[in-house]
Amino acid sequence: MKRLLTYLLVLFLPIILVACVSSNNSTSTEGTNDSQDNESTDTEQEDTQSADEPVELTYWYWADNSEYSNLMQDIIAEFNETNDKGITVIGEEYPWDGGGYSETLFTAAMGGGGPDVAAFKLTSTPLFTANNLLAKLDDYIDSWEDKDDIEENLYDIMKSASGTDNLYVMPWNTQVLYMYYRPSIFEEAGVEVPTTYEELLTAIEQTTMDTDGDGNTDIYGFGMRGATGGQEPWGSFIHGRGGDFEDMTSKEAIQGMQDFIDIYENGYAPPSATTDGFNEIIANFKSGKTAMTVHHTGSSAEMVETFGDDVSAFAFPEGVGQWTSMGDTNNVIFESTEHKEAAFEWVSYLATGKGQEDWTIATGNVPVSTRVQEMDHFQNDEFMKASIEGVPFAGILPIKDTTTEWISTIWPNTTASALLGEITAEDAMQQLHESLHEE
Amino acid sequence: MRRKNINIWPYLLVLPALLIVTFVVFIPVIEAIFMSFQSYDLRRPDKIAYLGFRNFADMFSDPIFWLAFKNTIIWVVFGVGLQFLFGFILALLLNQSFRGRGIIRAVSLIPWATPGVLIGLMWKWIYDGNYGVLNDLLIKLGLLDQGITFLSQTSTAFGSVIVTIIWQGIPFFAIMILAGLQVISREMYEAADIDGASKLQKLIHITIPSLKNVIIITILLRIIWVSNSVDIIHNMTGGGPSYSTQTLSVYIFNKATVLDLGYSSSMALFLMFMLAMVAVPYLKNAFKER
Amino acid sequence: MRWKRIVSLYIPLGTILLFLLFPFYWTFITSMKPEHELYGSTVTYWPKELTLASYQKLFGEFNFLLPMWNSFLVATITTFVTLFVSTLAAYSFTRYEFKGKSLLMGLFLTNNMFPNVLLLIPLFAIMRSFDLLYTPISLVMAYATFTIPFSVWMLTGYLKDLPNALEEAAMIDGANRATAFIKVILPVLMPSIVATGVYIFIQSWNEYTFAVLFTNEATRTIPVTLKNLIGQLGVQWDLLTAGGIITIIPVCIMFFFAQKKLIEGMTAGSVKG
Fold it and tell me: What pLDDT, on the 0 to 100 scale, is given for residue A260?
């Protein structure tokens, strides 16, 4: 019997051991805010002393296709060669995974194994700052020579996302949504480019056509996105009627939702719209199934490749209100890194340096550096023009700690219910409002 | 003295497996149990507090939870049931001798060997309402006039996803049962042949009883596995449209990826409890009458 | 006789195989279609222009061999480690009566019931504290979370169906337990071990959730590399489907050789029995 007890003890020893280790970990990540601040000032001093010693930085990013992946590796290589501070960036690519990237990054950072610097989406900011994972950038920005190359309002957007007055996120590039359309279909339907929201609704109706007369719709007016990401074009409809995100239960906002539902129920959008994501709306547009769809410059190159001159763009037109979504890709520096100065060198190279030029020119994203925006490449492109036209009324969803869940599951499912006639526009807006603004 | 010595061996044999599993599972599970009694939402780390049974109370008044629960039952009953049926048939077929059997056995593994990412995308592509091959085939066969958007309607989405999990799970049952078939000694069948038993009689009186434990365990493990499976639904529909394909495990996954760990742990414990309710009596019955 | 065979074997087998293999065929065709044909107005069942460009790209600039090697390494180690410890445990569960047996068996079963996604954060911290992050060992450990419980139960099932008489006969002949196990049980159990091994191998070969977290560029496995091909700007169908095909082939080839073991066990069993 004694022997059996000993064996049992041996058995449970590791359990106790691991329990201790893991509980130690959790206390050190949660409760030691003050000591972390002290530590960070120490390391900053060390940083300045040893500025010339070689520094290695791990950088996490995702790539939207393999060309972008190669591009990022090239930019990293060039930075490593040309910077005179002995900084070596090691790029680690992670899958975008429909937004799963942010959770992977968070889990790694919480577990103490994350990178020094990472590409980042603004919507995740509350999660990361609430857990004290990100480094404050205010001091670095204030003493940065290129500070004014980035517009003040962009900094403000980054700040508001954290829910504090501090800046944790370094701008990198943005994407402003606009409407792609097919001039040839417009001509066939006898429709002009809409200049008001009402005209847009009419245009969507009129470009929905049965071209071969077999009783089935062959061209749908609007390539609606009902899967995750669809909240961005949807927001334009809500604002078109004068609604907004602060009070989605207003009469105007509900009317906007009703317009959205009507487009689907009347058959002006493909029946698959309830689950259509980026791939589907682009494929439908490129195969001629839809006359209009909302996206940004990231897809303009392939549109032109498919249609040549037979594709163009207009900014989402004004109704009672006017709004379009501004997408963003940024960079963050982690509080845990020992090389904040070096990390800032790298993120600023991407924000205003050669890295900004190379990345935005090749990917077609809107630069954040005003210097780069003024380059000929961006001034002469019709799609870039539609983007820049949208900038004055472009905005983002309210960034709260509920936003990520709202985007990934609540909006798509609630909207699908409304589109499929399971709930009314009013109920849908009520649910959407409550889940976003829940305290 | 002797008796005690004998008693140590079983523990020693279990020890290595137990040690590895202890390191990697027990600790996280215990943490999850603690989390399920707290408002453990990492989006609001400064508000984490002990809640008692609040998470469970919330869960039982959450209509999405009940929908997911219902979906889980449908998912498991049809998913596992049909996987088993077709898998068993396939195993019996693959156990016969015919030319090219090795190759056929190897290729029938394909669905199972396919990465989840690809299964999701591939089937989405097959079901596609505009360019999908399934619609094209149905139209060519004259069964349809116009394509159905299988994954976009609440009426068809879940059935379509279930067909995919059946597709993926057939080889598993086939291989496991095929392995079990090899242990049955040939003499039993020969004796039955002498008695003039039909094929069906041999199946019912020899094959199935001899495989009883293997069948019970494969079904049970598969029930557990399928009810916990996330990646096919995640890659095909994400649980939509309108939550119609969201099972409990997908709901847990979605809640956990937005870092509401308290609520998702509560649901995970509930799911675990339900599975245990299925497993324990099932195993007790199965192993008692030996 | 011939007709009977067609009805009882070839027709059902053909139907099931058609269902199982058509999606694979479709993947293969998709991997070779140029894009305009992919989204064309008519569905084509054999591409008009064949292109192997995606396969070249995959091995040329994409270096797909590295993740293949990593996946192979992780899956192989996991398979052997799991099979070894699980066979011992299963033997213990079926051939001994001891205190706490049902508790231990229950522990292994409930392990299977817990969703992976909730294990991630604590497991990551554990891996880091043992300095295993971003090494293949961390994946082997993580995969053990689901392979060991599964295998222990599966092998317990097979061993239970195996008559005790086999080894008892050998032990009466003077062999000790270990010899009886190796000489008598193991050969008969081989098909079951192979089947379980195939299961472990495939699960580890295809796992994504842990793999994305516990690997970096150097140790990355196939599913993560494949998922890298799906960005915000759509899916790279050509590379993804080509990668998928290449992922499946080694598993099938391996099983082609392994499945012969499924028959060997049979002969061994009937000789002794």
Answer: 96
End-to-end CA distance of chain B: 31
Tally Cβ neighbours within 10 Å of residue A371.
14
Contact call for B8 and A7, based on CB within 8 A? yes
- Residue A358 pLDDT: 93
What is the model's pTM?
Answer: 0.88
* Residue B34 touches chain A, beta carbons under 8 Å: no
What are the tens digits of pLDDT across the range C103-137? 888 888 887 788 888 888 888 888 888 888 899 99
This complex has an ipTM of 0.86
Residue C19 lies in a domain: no
Q: Which fold has domain B36-116+158-288?
A: MetI-like fold (1.10.3720)
Strands A324-333 and A169-176: antiparallel
Select from B27, B241, B257 the Cβ nearest to the Cβ of A22.
B27
Please report the DSSP string for B102-136 in residue order. Answer: HHHHHHTTHHHHS-HHHHHHHHHHHH-TTT-HHHH
Strand A290-295's sheet: what is its strand order?
A220-223, A290-295, A178-181, A312-314
CATH number at residue C193: 1.10.3720.10
C120 to chain B: closest CA residue: B28
Domain assignment of residue C161, yes or no: yes
Angle at CA of residue C208, ends C204 and C211, nearest 5°: 80
Is C194 contained in some domain? Answer: yes
Give me A249's structure tokens: 């239960």
CB A327 within 8 A of CB A235: no
* Residue ranges of A 132-151 with Cβ closer than 8 A to chain B: none
Contact yes or no for C195/C155 (Cβ under 8 A): no
Range of the domain at C232: 62-272
Say if C124 falls within a structural domain. yes
